[in-house]
């Protein structure tokens, strides 16, 4: 007998949940109490979603930490509700947000199609400043071209 376990990682879950219209809390409560059969069908947005991870300097090696992160307020002001930042390896240092791990944050964006979602995600990523940070530049590129 072989046992197989699988789970979504952070970016995979973030991009899926961006399209979920059914309140997640209700789904989780129904699952925890054995009432999934009584739920209305799950509803999904027709929009596309893209998530881009911003990683610290030296990731996937030992990350440099303590670097200030700026531009987060700009994303909230200029890109919401279509793009938003999800924190992972961050912490507060006084009034500043600083890096505290390898995968520092993710930017998730939605749009009418993959091209629009991708453009919105990368526009938001460009607003974020973290010394030495890195991110992939090819997320959803092939799928957007083929759509």
Relevant terms:
alpha+beta; 5 helices; Glycinamide Ribonucleotide Synthetase, Chain A, domain 4; ATP binding; 24% strand; single chain; ligase; PRibGlycinamide_synth_C-dom; PRibGlycinamide_synth_CS; four-stranded antiparallel β-sheet
Report on the structure:
This protein has 147 residues and is of the alpha+beta class. It has a domain at 47-146: Phosphoribosylglycinamide synthetase, C-terminal domain (Glycinamide Ribonucleotide Synthetase, Chain A, domain 4). The protein has helices at residues 10-17, 24-32, 72-78, 114-127, 141-146, and strands at residues 48-55, 68-70, 83-87, 90-93, 96-99, 103-111, 129-130. The strands form two sheets. Strands 4-5-2-7 form a four-stranded antiparallel beta sheet. A three-stranded antiparallel beta sheet has the order 1-6-3, sandwiched between helices. Strand 4 (90-93) and strand 5 form a beta hairpin. The longest helix is centred in the C-terminal third of the chain and has 14 residues, at 114-127. The protein is globular, with a radius of gyration of 17 Å.
Query: What proportion of the residues is helical, as a percent range?
Result: 25-40%
What would you call the shape? globular
The major beta sheet can be summarized as: 4 strands, antiparallel
Strand content: 15-25%
Question: Would you give the CATH topology of the domain at 47-146?
Answer: Glycinamide Ribonucleotide Synthetase, Chain A, domain 4
Number of helical runs? 5
Low-confidence stretches: none
What's the multimeric state? single chain
The CATH class label of the domain at 47-146 is: Alpha Beta
């Amino acid at each position: 007998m072989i046992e197989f376990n699988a789970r979504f990682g952070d970016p995979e879950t973030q991009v899926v949940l961006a399209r979920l219209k059914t309140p997640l809390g209700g789904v989780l409560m129904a699952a925890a109490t054995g009432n999934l059969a009584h739920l209305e069908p799950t509803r999904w947005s027709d929009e596309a979603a893209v998530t881009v991870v911003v990683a610290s300097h030296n990731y996937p090696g030992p990350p440099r930490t303590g670097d200030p992160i700026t531009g987060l307020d700009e994303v909230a002001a200029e890109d919401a509700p279509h793009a938003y930042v999800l924190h992972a390896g961050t912490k507060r240092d006084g009034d500043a947000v600083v890096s505290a791990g390898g995968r520092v944050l993710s930017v998730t964006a939605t749009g009418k199609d993959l091209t629009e979602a991708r453009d919105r995600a990368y526009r938001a990523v460009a607003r974020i400043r973290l010394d030495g940070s890195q991110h992939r530049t090819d997320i959803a590129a092939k799928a957007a071209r083929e759509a």
